[in-house]
Amino acid sequence: MPEWQPAQLVAAHDETATARSLVFDIPGWPGHLAGQHVDVRVTAPDGYTASREYSIASGEVDAAPSGLGASGVNVELSVEELDDGEVSPYLVRGLDIGDHLEIRGPVGGYFVWTAAQTEPVQLIAGGSGVVPLMSMLRTHAAAGHPSPMRLLYSVRGPQFAFYTDELRRLVDSSKGSLTVDYAFTREAPSGADRSIGRLMRDELEMLTVPVASSPTTYLCGPNSFVEGISGWLVELGHPASRILTERFGGA
Known about the structure:
Elongation Factor Tu (Ef-tu), domain 3; 5 helices; 2 domains; 2Fe-2S; 2 iron, 2 sulfur cluster binding; 20% helix; FAD-bd_FR_type; iron-sulfur; alpha/beta; 5-stranded parallel beta sheet
């Protein structure tokens, strides 16, 4: 397991009314792959500590240069505040530029995408499950990767969607290699082609890379969302071994 490293908040902006993207400078960062995550530990003035796991939003980066006085690497996390959370409310509302906390990672080698992959890729996100998939999208764009990558993003409404402007820019600059589709479950923007409601099996088939193209699918979201979507993908003929999942608690 990697050791805890000091991290300083150097930039931050709101993604939604309840979510915030945080950029940390981490000297000695060993580098990370798109899709990996970290542990974040905060310490209260009385010495009490709490840690939680968060996906990395920034694209793949190499290790920080070694040597005395070497600068750190900027690592971005995007955090959704939970009503009963212990760490997320502090990260979203309490952490100021210049503040420090501890980060351990990167962690995980299963749910990752690298530019060496040549097959089509289907990304499916539920809510804040878009965060590790954004790391893959950024890595794909930075590499100028020609292989198709498609994102299907299920979210309550446009005001809850992460990275809206950046996703639009990535699509516009991708020369057709990237497609983004939204499934709004409770509120849709005016003029939307799709009616509000949860994703269903038939719609999933229409909005994802076909089985015949042999895609690798990365699926991240709440437990129930991941269970339902992965089951439908298998029913549609996708091999279970090509469906990689990450999930978090809550429905």
